[in-house]
Amino acid sequence: MLTLTLESSCDETSVAIVRDGRLLLSNAIASQIPVHRRYGGVVPEIASRNHIRDMYPVVEEALEEAGVALGDIEGIGVTSGPGLIGSLLVGVETAKGLAYAIDCPCVGLNHLEGHLTTARLELESTGRPNFPYIGLVVSGGHSDLYVAHEMGDYTKLGSTRDDAAGEAFDKVAKMLGLPYPGGVEIDRLAQAGDPEALDFPRPMWTREHFDFSFAGLKTAVYEHLQERGVPEEDEALADLCASFQQAVVDVLVMKTIEAASRRAIPRVVLSGGVAANSMLREEMHRAAEQRDLGVFVAPPELCTDNAGMLGPIAEHYLNRLETTGFQHPDLQATDTTPLGRRAAE
Ligand code: KG4
Ligand code: ZN
Fold first, then answer.
1. Residue 173: nearest ligand to its CA?
2. C-alpha distances in angstroms, 109 versus 8, 9, 41, 206, 303?
3. DSSP assignments along 47-91, one per residue
4. pLDDT digit string (tens) for 6-39?
5. What pTM does this model have?
6. How far apart are the first and last CA of the chain?
7. Which ligand is nearest to the CA of 185?
8. CA angle 181, 157, 126 (to 5 degrees)
9. Whose CA is nearest to atom 8 of ligand 1?
């Protein structure tokens, strides 16, 4: 099946063409990062307006790059939640319009399920994990740990009790006067820093449960800055970034590895924007190797928001529709997430 997928839940307008839910033929992305940078974060109204401007050129770019015509598309998948409502509306209405025009089915998809199953794409650089796997989804809005039993069947093991990991990165970056999105900047500056220079807390450092908390860590950085001020020297700034990043990474790695060992599942998958973090990728690989676990993590551009990541779930849900021809998703259904539907065991 040849599918077209659309993602516009936040500030990336993205359209991908995917064959059989695993072969990425194109993945066009128009990023609004430079626009929102001047405000220090995403401004929802501006994001919606830019999605309207960019959506059709991005559709055309994706079709052209894949070398296919709109009429060749057999099914459409679109992020219908969670996300900014104005941004989602642009993607969903575009998807419905295209599906209506070419008389093909269209399904609404869960953004987090897209992140969680990105690794099921066939990528040159990484292997493709079999089920079951432990899936860590770490983004700007979520930090969740799942068992992915198979497509559409997941058990949520834990999630953040307050801020998401990405939010902690972004807020700490803001305190340091770094530009949005902060995770990328902290990652970059931390490369030159000493991760042991400062001793920040590792919140929820327990093997008793799989929940996370990052608000206290954010406060610890805030208090440190109140006391000592924002470092003026490059070296001290790098040390601070590296030490903060190490605290986040330690908790994410420990809990993910612990989940794999408790569940006796031999592979882990990292996803979401924070999975682009170089230290997280390295340390997860190192910890997993010691225990003979497989680690699967897509290249950074497939970790941050993009439509390509929706390929596997688009195929999965389109194949399960009972009728063919034009069908459209209902935004009312965005809260009925298929994630974690299986009761915690
Ligand atoms: O998945 P994503 O693109 O959007 C959401 O669904 O939220 O994730 C965005 C988050 C932001 O908080 C951003 O700072 C973070 O991912 N991020 C990173 C890196 N690249 C993006 N965090 C740490 N290191 C990175 N290299
Ligand atoms: Zn995301």
1. 1
2. 12, 11, 25, 33, 17
3. HHHHHHHHHHHHHHHHHHHHT--GGG--EEEEEEESS-HHHHHHH
4. 999 999 999 999 999 999 999 999 999 999 999 9
5. 0.94
6. 35
7. 1
8. 60
9. 273
Atom of ligand 1 nearest to the CA of 139: 8
Average pLDDT estimate for 109-130: 93
**In DSSP terms, which residues pair with 137 in a beta bridge?**
144, 271
Residue 197 CB neighbours (<10 A): 15
For the segment 64-107, what is each residue's pLDDT rounded down to a tens digit? 999 999 999 999 999 998 899 999 999 999 999 999 999 999 99
Q: How far is the CA of 183 from the centre of ligand 1 (A)?
A: 6
Q: What is the pLDDT of residue 336?
A: 40
Per cent of the chain over pLDDT 90 is 87
Residue ranges of domains in the chain, CATH in brackets: 2-117+305-334 (3.30.420.40), 130-297 (3.30.420.40)
Structural tokens at position 284: 């997860």
Q: Which residues touch 326 (CB under 8 Å, ≥6 apart)?
A: 99, 100, 103, 104, 105, 106
* Predicted pLDDT at 126: 82
CA 180–ligand 1 middle distance (angstroms): 10
Strands (E), the chain: 2-7, 12-19, 23-31, 75-81, 106-110, 133-138, 143-150, 153-159, 267-271, 294-297
Report which protein residue has its CA nearest ligand 1's atom 20.
Answer: 184
**Cα–ligand 2 centroid distance for 304 (angstroms):** 6
